[in-house]
Amino acid sequence: MRLRNPLVLAAGILGTGAQLLARVAENGAGMVTTKSCGPSPREGHPNPTVLDWGHGLINAVGLANPGVDEGVKIIARAKEILEPLGLPLAASIFAETVKGFAQVARKIADAQPDFIELNISCPNVSHEFGRPFACDAGDAARVTGAVKEVTSIPIIVKLSPNVTDIALIARSVEQAGADAIAAINTLGPGMIIDIYSGQPVLANRVGGVSGPAIRPVAVRCVYDIYEAVEIPIIGIGGVGDGRDALEMVMAGATAVGVGSAVRYGGLEVFQTILEEMRAFMVEEGHTNLNQLRGIAHR
Ligand SMILES: Cc1cc2nc3c(=O)[nH]c(=O)nc-3n(C[C@H](O)[C@H](O)[C@H](O)COP(=O)(O)O)c2cc1C
Question: Residue 207: phi, psi to the nearest 5?
């Protein structure tokens, strides 16, 4: 699959409706990912769910989504708009069980997304769901294998930074049939306390950390995964400008996810990042991104 440019809208950011996804596409993304969709409607956590704490975001949206039956309709509508533009769409899904992942994947496949992304790494629901599947190589492989059995649509597996050896997990999902890896989901969970009330700010008390503060962790994760697997990596985490995106590519990313930066820079952020990447490449005499991919490993 060829992308018109390497920037991908990360899951959970503006990916809730077909029109919103189309706006992101118009503003320059090379591919878009939908908000994660599960087996049935979920309200998510009560407000406040997202906080800008100065060096990034902390969120506990709690996988709010309309459920897979409605999700299929949203993806089908988005596909109608994006297909003529030649813009691929990844449908992000989650479930509480391995079987649940396969069931949601089978239904979502009806809408013919270009990829199905397995969100096995959300840190905000562990009190409900237990330890994320992405925290164990065997669990991560079982989910990947179960989804591969029910669909021929290429699978992206989204990994968690909250593990001691992300390369091990990456290798295990590759062996189970993953077609690509997205890394990373949010870091943590973390906590921000309001010192006047003496209470955590998020109603859920804890949430996943994203944005600039997590970028060095994300770059290191992509670097480790690149050493371990052959499949492409979508590098995500704290990318806000062209320099950050190039860092991801140099660590080994084939494509680069942009999430929290949309909160800081608006939808223009995609064009800005692309222009900054191009300017660097012209200045340094590079004609193709492939020349830069993984060069940090040399
Ligand atoms: C408000 C918010 C909601 C998110 N929702 C999802 C989601 O539904 N599914 C998912 O896989 N990741 C979700 N993420 C994680 C992002 O896709 C991304 O992996 C993470 O934020 C790191 O990238 P960033 O620093 O560019 O935001 C969410 C992140 C934020 C900030």
Answer: -160, 170
Does 183 reside within a domain?
yes
CA 247 to chain CA centroid, nearest Å = 17
Q: How far is the CA of 15 from the centre of ligand 1 (A)?
A: 10
Residue 2 lies in a domain: no
Domains held by the chain: number: 1
Nearest in space to 165 (alpha carbons), one of 126, 135, 130, 208: 135
188 lines ligand 1 (CB under 6 A): no
CA 172–ligand 1 middle distance (angstroms): 23
CATH number at residue 162: 3.20.20.70
The predicted structure's pLDDT at residue 79: 94
To 5 degrees, how large is the angle CA 252–CA 256–CA 260? 135
- Report which of 31, 24, 19 is spatially closest to residue 156, judged by C-alpha positions: 31
Query: Using DSSP, how many helices (H) and how many strands (E) does the chain show?
Result: 10, 14
pLDDT in tens, 155-189: 999 999 999 999 999 999 999 999 999 999 999 99
Going by alpha carbons, the residue nearest to atom 7 of ligand 1 is 12
Query: Residue 259 — very low, low, confident or very high, per pLDDT cuts 50/70/90?
Result: very high
Which residues constitute the domain of residue 283? 7-297
Looking from the CA of residue 65, the nearest atom of ligand 1 is 8
87-109 residue pLDDT tens: 999 999 999 999 999 999 999 99
Q: From atom 12 of ligand 1, which residue's Cα is the shortest distance away?
A: 11
In-domain check, residue 1 = no
Residue 125 pLDDT: 80
| Closest ligand 1 atom, residue 263 Cα | 31
Residue numbers annotated as active site? 122
Cut 0.90: pTM above it: yes
Q: Is residue 153 part of a domain?
A: yes
State residue 100's pLDDT score: 96
Distance 2 CA to ligand 1 centre (A): 24
